[in-house]
Design goal:
This protein is mainly alpha-helical and 121 residues long. The chain contains 6 helices and no strands. The chain is rod-shaped, with a radius of gyration of 35 Å.
């Protein structure tokens, strides 16, 4: 009699596990999770699988959105920084000269270097 009880409990667990995996499949979630919940928890596992397993399609869409954002962020970080224009640099030099942070000689030297750099690729 003891063997038949074990067999009935095991077969019942398998059947509950199969129902749990069907519930998980309907939610597009991994079927092994539903099977395990059904096998070990029986009908309560079916209810838990139905309530707690995430919709696999939504989870996949969320993951794809996160990956798209991560690629966009990486692309922005890898983008080369725009070099300031020669006119902007000259305007900064003029402002420094007008604020007396640069002497006339230093201004002329920096201006010459800037224009020489602009001529070379």
């Amino acid at each position: 009699m003891g063997d038949s009880v074990v067999l009935v409990v095991f077969v019942g667990g398998l059947l509950c596990g199969l129902v749990g995996s069907v519930v998980a499949r309907m939610k597009h979630a991994p079927t092994y999770k539903g099977f395990l919940w059904g096998f070990f928890l029986g009908p309560i596992g079916w209810l838990l699988a139905a309530l707690l397993l995430q919709d696999g399609r939504k989870a996949k869409a969320d993951m794809q959105e996160k990956m798209r954002r991560a690629r966009e962020l990486a692309r922005q970080q890898d983008a080369p920084k725009a070099k300031p224009s020669v006119a902007d640099e000259l305007a900064k030099l003029v402002a420094l000269k007008n604020s007396r942070a640069l002497t006339d000689d230093e201004f002329a030297e920096q201006k010459r270097r800037l224009l020489a750099q602009q001529g070379s690729p």
